[in-house]
Amino acid sequence: MRLPELVQGIILTVGSAAYLAMLSTKMLLVTAIWMVVTIWGGFVLVARVYQHMATLRETEDKLYNDYQTVLEGRKELTLNRERAEQIFQQCYTPDAKEYRHHIIRADTFHLSAVNWSNIMMLGAIGLVFWMANSLGWADTNVAATYSLTLLFLRTPLLSAVGALPTLLTAQVAFNKLNKFALAPYKPDFPQPKAFPDWKTLELRNVVFHYQDNAFSVGPINLTIHRGELLFLIGGNGSGKSTLAMLLTGLYQPQSGTILLDGQPIAAGQPEDYRKLFSAVFTDVWLFDRLLGPQGKPANPALVEKWLEHLKMTHKLELNDGRILNLKLSKGQKKAHCTAAGAGGRARYYFAG
Q1: Residue 289 contacts residue 322 (beta carbons within 8 Å)
Q2: Rounded-to-integer distance, Cα 172 and Cα 318, Å
């Protein structure tokens, strides 16, 4: 972080200005006008840097999306060379060129701001001697002192200007984070309330719709009893995944109520409700450590029992609750997560 350089430059500039005022007030006023022009020109150039930095961040997101497309779709692209060419020519190449354009322009304006400040600071020395010798506002000794002070100011002032792009980049990143409307930071993890003796889970007039209002689910009225085995059946886009997300508490309904044993679940405490569930998603992620209830190490005997039941005993290498080989097929990963969910003793279990 280069904020200290910016603060240092401002403090030294103010202190030096006070010293120069003691030497010659008239020369300070002219020099101050010169410095205002210098700073104004620098900020005009830095504003262009900010514009390109903001656009650069958006372009960088598109470029990373292109990388992800190539990496995750490499098998499909290997089979379909026309699609590979289309992605390279129409997606990756334009995005890469746009990224190059904006990063070059941002660097160009940044260096122009530094050089502008450098030239104007050196020009201020010539201005000081002109005021002293031609206008007779001061003697040569005062002009020399002025010049040395301005040369002293040159380094912190240039450091302050050089620190601005870093601060602007941080501001762009901060503004982008604000768009996510993230929840406030909490220093401690919430401790969910336990529901060991639940009997029923009920959705009563539950409605959910996405932000673009293009798709909605509900009203849903559903009661699930302990020990039931349910299948969600429907065509693509019928709302199966959305319903599963609502049931597990990953999505919050816009209206309606979720009840556990007839008691509404507190909307402000979703962790209490989510603790009841384990899930195996279609895009499953495999963690390398097995956990049991309350975040404690999983029961080795229970894990071994489930691995044997799922015929995964010889597929996973375990050492003190840690998986040593994570390179498994998608089906094997789902089987592993099934065993992990059983080890965690979840009350509800979802598999996609």
Answers
A1: yes
A2: 44
Could you tell me the two tokens for 343? 């080890």
What's the rounded mean pLDDT across residues 140-154? 81
Residue-wise pLDDT for 56-109, tens only, equals: 878 888 888 888 888 878 777 777 777 788 888 888 888 888 888 888 888 888
Number of Cβ within a 10 Å radius of residue 39: 17
| pLDDT in the model for residue 1 | 47
Strand segments (E) across 137-229: 200-209, 216-225
b/e sequence 81-90, b meaning 16+ C-beta within 10 Å? eeebeebeee
Of 243, 247, 240, nearest to 274 by C-alpha is: 247
User: What topology does CATH give the domain 3-178?
Assistant: ABC transporter transmembrane region fold (1.20.1560)
How far from chain centre, in Å, is Cα 43? 28
The rounded distance, in Å, linking the Cα atoms of 68 and 100 is 19
Indicate the CATH number for domain 200-351: 3.40.50.300
Query: How crowded is the C-beta side of 73, counted as CA atoms within 13 Å?
Result: 14
**pLDDT for 193:** 65
Fold match between domain 3-178 and domain 200-351: no
Q: How far apart are CA 277 and CA 352, in angstroms?
A: 13
Residue 324 CB: number of other CB atoms within 10 A? 9
Report whether 131 contacts 12 (CB < 8 A): no
Contact 352, 244 (CB under 8 A): yes
| The token pair that represents 225 in the structure block | 């009893």
DSSP letter at 294 equals: G
Residue 351 buriedness (CB in 10 A; 0-12 / 13-18 / 19+): middle
Distance of alpha carbon 96 from alpha carbon 165, whole angstroms: 22
Q: What is the mean pLDDT of residues 132-137?
A: 82
Please give the single-letter amino acid code of residue 80: N
What are the residue ranges spanned by the domains of the chain? 3-178, 200-351
Type and span of the H or E element at 260: strand 255-260
Per the rule left: phi > 0, alpha: psi between -120 and 50, beta: everything else, 130 is alpha
Burial 232-251 (b: 16+ CB within 10 A, else e): eeeeeeebbbbbbbbbbbeb
